[in-house]
Amino acid sequence: MKDRRIDEAVTRLRDRLRPDQISVRLAERLAYSYDATWVEGLPDIVVHAESTADVAWVLRIADEMEIPVTPRGGGTGLAGGAVPTTGGICLNLARMNRILEINPIDGIAIAQPGVTTYSLQKAAESYGLFYPPDPASLYMCTIGGNVATNAGGPCCLKYGVTRDYVLGLEIVIPGGKILRWGGRVMKDVSSYDLKQLFIGSEGTLGVITEITVRLLPKPPSIGGIAVAFEKIESACEAVTSILSNGILPLMAELMDQKTMQAVEAFHPYGLPIEAEALLLLATDGKEEAVQTDLARMIRVIDAFGGQVIRVAEDTESANQLWEPRRQVSPAIARLAPHKLSEDITVPRSQIPRMIQHIQRISRESNIPIVIYGHIGDGNLHPTLLFNRQNSEEMRRVAKAALQILQAALDLGGTLSGEHGIGILKLDLLPAAFSPAAIEKLWAIKLIFDPKNIMNPGKKLPIL
């Protein structure tokens, strides 16, 4: 969108921001033109905010001049949500990376949006506390991005997703107004819970500049098991049976054969690559309870033909057991020039049927698809492998991706469990929501952002 507005905006931004906080150089703009997908969009300006006041100044200028703003954290998004596809300003929040407070008495932490999830977890652990949400990209993703997409991770089966831990938010909306909703208390029904609107809003309503989250006591012990299955359907049924028997695992993760083979080629762990599926199960609590739950899960698994290949009876060995799951994304990335990691959620009872649909779609489209994900809560990540330079293959990829998403909807599921809609899933939103519902979503959007400058073209379909 390069025009005189950009030059004028740069001049005005420099009134309050240092030169090193503003860049219009092509090399730096290119560095902020993509995320973890193949989607690209070149910003006209990159602004590195270091305070809430910086963000307010940017949004004041952007609103007055009607320049699009795309907030950005760690750039690990998988739906194109942080890609500035309409140009304008890329507002980088990575420098706002301070943990402002950890209070073990109140059981809370207050952090700026650029704090990585891993840093927050480790800081909490130094007080004997626990921040449960743990996306696979926790070493790089930021807490602000987690809130913007309502990120989950393996632990959300037992402990819930980011939304369940956010107590308060500081938010800057277009025009530069600073709003605060919630705080450091565990219960509050004083007004409408407007902070919930911003959790999962993907930067389309405003910019999150401070987050207050609740912390839990750190579990004293963790244990886990790795189980191989000859049939992937048996793995799905085993998880359903475990949950039906009153056992709530800390984690229940599925890796299909192709995923295991990719991980094993990337880093040898001794995975059972001849099996159709691998289940990674974990439990936490007091040591006696951990041992009891492991024994109960093993008994259930045995009834479904599962072969326990590894048992971890303490926290250190459990963390090692989990390492192959952490390597899935980089391992899969080596299989093809490009990949699309979908993020569907279906009722647990429908997981076997969903997997059958994915396998059929892979065969019919001749597109390799690997399957892994958080099977305990029905959140699967079927990942399509392809070469973006092959236009004919890209047409098949697009069709296959839409078929997967439609199959999830047909089974009573959703388009996204934790990655967000971004730009990649806009086409199917009309299938997931009625015209009346979409109209109301837009009405909410325009209350906070009447000029539609906040991350336009994302999250909501074009009316």
Low-confidence stretches: none
Structural class: alpha+beta
From the spread of the alpha carbons, the general shape counts as: globular
Strand order of the largest sheet: 15-12-14-13-19-20-17
CATH class placement of the largest domain = Alpha Beta
The overall average pLDDT, rounded, is 95
**Rg over alpha carbons:** 22 Å
Structure description:
It is built from 16 helices and 21 strands. The mean pLDDT is 95. The protein has helices at 4-13, 26-31, 52-65, 117-125, 143-149, 156-159, 195-198, 232-244, 257-266, 287-302, 315-326, 328-333, 351-365, 391-410, 429-432, 435-448, and strands at residues 22-23, 45-48, 69-72, 89-92, 99-103, 108-111, 129-130, 166-173, 177-182, 207-214, 216-217, 221-229, 251-256, 277-285, 307-312, 338-341, 344-345, 369-370, 372-374, 379-380, 383-386. The chain is of the alpha+beta class and 463 residues long. The protein folds into 4 domains: 4-92, Uridine Diphospho-n-acetylenolpyruvylglucosamine Reductase, domain 2; 99-217, 2-Layer Sandwich (Uridine Diphospho-n-acetylenolpyruvylglucosamine Reductase, domain 3); 221-326, Alpha-Beta Plaits (2-Layer Sandwich), CATH 3.30.70; 336-418, Alpha-Beta Plaits.
Topology (elements, then pairings):
Elements (H helix, E strand, L loop, with lengths): L3 H10 L8 E2 L2 H6 L13 E4 L3 H14 L3 E4 L16 E4 L6 E5 L4 E4 L5 H9 L3 E2 L12 H7 L6 H4 L6 E8 L3 E6 L12 H4 L8 E8 L1 E2 L3 E9 L2 H13 L6 E6 H10 L10 E9 L1 H16 L4 E6 L2 H12 L1 H6 L4 E4 L2 E2 L5 H15 L3 E2 L1 E3 L4 E2 L2 E4 L4 H20 L18 H4 L2 H14 L15
